[in-house]
Amino acid sequence: MKKVCILTSSHSLLDDRIFYKEARSLYRAGYTVHIISSTKRLCLVKDGITLHGFSFQIFPYRFGFRHILNCLMFIYLGVKEKADIYHFHEPELLIAAGIIKLALLISGKRIAIIHEIRDFYLSEAFLDSRLNRCQKTALSIKIYWDKMIHRICDHIIGVEESKIERPLSYGISPQKITVIENYVPLDLFHEYSKQFDPQNFVLGYSGGLSFLRGIDKLANACVLFGKKVNIRPMLLLAGRFSSNEEEKQIIEYCKNNEQFVNLKFLGWIDHTEVPVRLAEVDICFALFYSKRYDKVFSTNAGPIKLYEYMALGKPIIATNAYALEHTINNAQCGIVVDPEGGVEAIVDAIEFYFKNPERLLQDGRNGRLAVEKYFNWSIAERKLFDVYKKLACTI
User: Fold this and answer.
1) DSSP character at residue 163
2) Of 115, 176, 246, 262, which alpha carbon lies 20 to 30 A from 159's?
3) What distance in Å separates the CA atoms of residue 187 and residue 161, rounded to the nearest whole number?
4) Is there a single domain that holds both residue 338 and residue 388?
5) Alpha-carbon radius of gyration of the chain
6) Phi and psi (nearest 5°) for 246?
7) Lowest-pLDDT choice from 10-24, 125-139, 193-207, 287-301
8) Where are the beta strands (DSSP E) in 28-94?
9) What's the pTM value of the predicted model, to 2 decimals?
10) Checking DSSP bridges between strand 49-53 and strand 85-88, what pairing results, if any?
């Protein structure tokens, strides 16, 4: 069976998609799987999958020094693996991908390159910004380079339909591009129904923490709700903050209002711990306040947190980005709020569920049923296998 090497420069070795979905699926299908990451020093074998992590964090970013070291290490380890299929998770690794492909070709070995697009970059990354002339020029150069470097890829994967718009605009054949959604592995995420208790009312969020993802508004809504109904809800946050300043602001705000909200900040937790921690939650949140996220979720596929919440049987309060509104309304598993409604719209949605506890159970159950039918990883897994089978036949 073919050997696979998955490489990432910004995700952990035990990343929810890389390890718990793609790598596990490929290993069960008979592939030999190795993962290389530059986020942490670690070498071990877990569940039959070889993990190799390295880190140059002691070196500065200045002049791109750390990036150069990372690139050289990815090339060295990638060539050393002599895999058949290389699966890259960031565009910055495509230079290393090209060199690895050339080096192995010179040695007489043909390989296939996959680039997976998980996040927006280049122009989409600046939708909330106003660029000056120099920045626009630099961006144009980067886009041109991106177009050229993608020619080395044998296949491109996007986690949402919106993520494949850029490679399609480059003229790359649609036959070489596949959307594989970030759905939920049901063997890890079971349904957890919680008995309603007004004195133990828990509001939860899992994922990246930032003001653009509405964490400041969520904290404010918890406080206003606590004042309004005269209870002290718990706000459970699981994930990393995008900045230390925002983390300090949220912790300080909740401490100054601790008579109205009980903050439980877990920080980053392993993917397998997410369902355990969220089991105690009554309502989960998916709030986004950015033009960038309007673009990200402009098609049918939503963020992974949406499907995880649904799989756990938790009702959801979310902003009205198309993918979230489309999924929640069709599944009848939550309440969609308009960002223009501000914090008050979130408070009203929380209060509705608090005063109608039967809807907590019903909406949660609806979400679970939708995941079992439509949004589970086994559906996406079949697409992954199709891509790999096609590539395996070409090498």
Assistant:
1) G
2) 246
3) 26
4) no
5) 22
6) -65, -40
7) 125-139
8) 32-37, 42-46, 49-53, 85-88
9) 0.92
10) unpaired
Kindly list the distances between the CA atom of residue 287 and the CA atoms of 10, 62, 99, 210, in Å, as whole numbers in the listed order: 23, 34, 41, 10
Half-sphere exposure of residue 90, counting CA atoms within 13 Å on the CB side? Answer: 16
Same domain flag for 42 and 109: yes
Q: Which two tokens stand for residue 313?
A: 């049987």
Please tell me whether residues 333 and 385 are part of one structural domain.
no
Query: Count of CB atoms within 10 A of residue 68's CB?
Result: 12
285, 316 contact by CB (below 8 A): yes
Q: How far apart are CA 158 and CA 367, in angstroms?
A: 24
pLDDT tens digits, 101-131: 999 999 999 999 999 999 888 887 788 888 8
Give the position of tokens 């509104």. Answer: 325
Q: Give CA–CA dist 154/131, Å, rounded.
A: 33
Query: Side chain identity at 192, as an amino acid letter?
Result: Y
User: What distance in Å separates the CA atoms of residue 226 and residue 261, rounded to the nearest whole number?
Assistant: 7
pLDDT band at 187 (very low <50, low <70, confident <90, very high): very high
Measured CA to CA, the distance from residue 89 to residue 117 in angstroms comes to 7
Question: What pLDDT is attached to residue 127?
Answer: 82
d(CA 103, CA 109): 9
pLDDT tens digits, 42-93: 999 999 999 999 998 766 666 567 888 999 999 999 999 999 999 999 999 9
CATH number at residue 141: 3.40.50.2000
Burial (0-12, 13-18, 19+ Cβ within 10 Å), 129: exposed
Q: What angle do CA 87, 375, 114 make, to 5 degrees?
A: 10
Residues 143 and 284 in one domain: no
Q: For the residues 178-202, what does the mean pLDDT come to? A: 94
- % of the chain exceeding 90 in pLDDT: 88
